């Protein structure tokens, strides 16, 4: 059997993301032809996440999932539109990442309220709390590692995977949502540990460029 390179799963994840983005290329082209600014799409995506949270709090996971899905689509479109228009900036990247965290904060907060109001076990509230906190730490760990001058491409459960799991759960109902959140909590915690180990490898004194795991 031919050995699989250590970083191959990250290469595969990148190729999947690229193919997914290409599906929305016609929409990106339409928005570009209409002169829609990428930042406007980012704000619409954030507004959709907040609307989804409100719907979840009011008791509808399905329609909350629809709004959350729309928010995620906007998150893909704004980056593609910025690249298409040649308007990629550091500030745009900052806004995009910040809005992602704000969106996650609202949606998980909405789930906390939903599960509390519907009499679910307290342990489920703890699971949602862990999923939210670990999701933030996954992103923070990457930003901190890259801020130290090293790349960070490791991670089992990054935002796209967490997002897909969460949307599927919301659309499928309360039990599926609880299961999705539990998977996210476990996967995100594991990813944080992965990135802590990666940070140790690339920052210890004897580490060299060849020690980093790359895509």
Task: Provide a descriptive summary of the structure in words.
The chain is an all-alpha fold and 215 residues long. It has a single domain, classed as CDP-alcohol phosphotransferase transmembrane (TM) domain (Four Helix Bundle (Hemerythrin (Met), subunit A), Up-down Bundle), CATH 1.20.120.1760. The protein is built from eight helices and no strands. Helix 7 runs antiparallel to helix 8.
Secondary structure layout:
Blueprint: H1 8-23, H2 25-33, H3 38-57, H4 61-85, H5 90-117, H6 122-147, H7 159-172, H8 174-203
Mean pLDDT: 85
Which superfamily, in CATH terms, is the homologous superfamily?
CDP-alcohol phosphotransferase transmembrane (TM) domain
The figure for the number of domains is 1
Distance between the ends: 22 Å
Could you name the ranges where pLDDT drops below 50 across 5 or more consecutive residues? 1-8, 210-215
Précis, in short:
This protein is 78% helix and 0% strand. The protein has 215 residues and is mainly α.
Which characteristics define this entry?
215 residues; globular; disordered N terminus; Four Helix Bundle (Hemerythrin (Met), subunit A); 8 helices; mainly alpha
């Amino acid at each position: 059997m031919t050995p699989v390179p250590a970083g191959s799963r990250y290469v595969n994840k990148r190729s999947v993301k690229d193919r997914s983005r290409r599906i929305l290329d016609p929409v990106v082209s339409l928005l570009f032809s209409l002169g829609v600014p990428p930042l406007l799409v980012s704000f619409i995506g954030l507004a959709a996440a907040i609307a989804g949270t409100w719907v979840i709090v009011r008791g509808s996971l399905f329609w909350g999932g629809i709004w959350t899905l729309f928010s995620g689509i906007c998150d893909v479109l704004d980056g593609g539109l910025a690249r298409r228009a040649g308007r990629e900036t550091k500030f745009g990247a900052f806004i995009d990442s910040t809005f992602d965290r704000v969106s996650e904060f609202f949606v998980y907060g909405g789930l906390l309220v939903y599960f509390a109001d519907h009499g679910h076990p307290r342990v489920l509230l703890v699971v949602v709390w862990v999923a939210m906190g670990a999701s933030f730490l996954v992103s923070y760990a990457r930003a901190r590692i890259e801020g130290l001058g090293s790349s960070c491409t490791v991670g089992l459960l990054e935002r796209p995977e967490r997002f897909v799991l969460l949307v599927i759960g919301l659309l499928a109902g309360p039990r599926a949502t609880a299961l999705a959140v539990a998977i996210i909590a476990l996967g995100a915690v594991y990813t944080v540990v992965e990135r802590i180990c990666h940070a140790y490898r690339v920052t210890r004194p004897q580490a060299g460029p060849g020690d980093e795991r790359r895509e």
